[in-house]
Amino acid sequence: MAFLDSMNISASALTATRLRMDVIAENMANSSTTRTAEGGPYRRKFVVFQEIQPDNTFGSFFNRAQRSYGGVRVTMIGEDQSEFKLDYNPNHPDADEFGYVQMPNVEVVQEMVDMMAAYRAYEANITAVNTFKDMAVKTLEIGK
Question: What's the domain range around 121?
Fold first, then answer.
C-alpha cells in the first residue's frame, strides 16, 4: 500500500536525520578538545546517507513483511581528514616546542548551519508523517 510506503520513507528519514543531529552535537561539544583517547585533537565527524532501493523481486511480493519500501539510511559515520587548526598558546599542556596547539578541525559556524539544515529536514518529515496521519483519520471518517 502506497500510504504505508510513504510512512516508512518518512520514518527512515527521521531516524537518519536524528543521527545526523547527534553527530553534529558531538562535533560542537568537542570543538575545543585537544586530547582524545586515540591521541591528538578531536576530528570532525560527518554522516553519509544512502537511498534505500525498493525490493521489487518476485519473492518480495509474496512476503510483503520483509519488503523494503525505499527511504534513506546511514551508511557510515566518517571522520574529516582536513588539517587541524593551529593556535598559539605556549602555556597550554598540549603545546608543541614552538608554542602551537593543534585544535580540532571543527568550524562551529558550519556545524550550526548543518544543524539548522538537519532540523529543517526533521521538521519536514514530521509534517509529512502528521499529514499521513490526518489523511488516515479522514479516510476512516468516510465510513461513518
Answer: 2-142
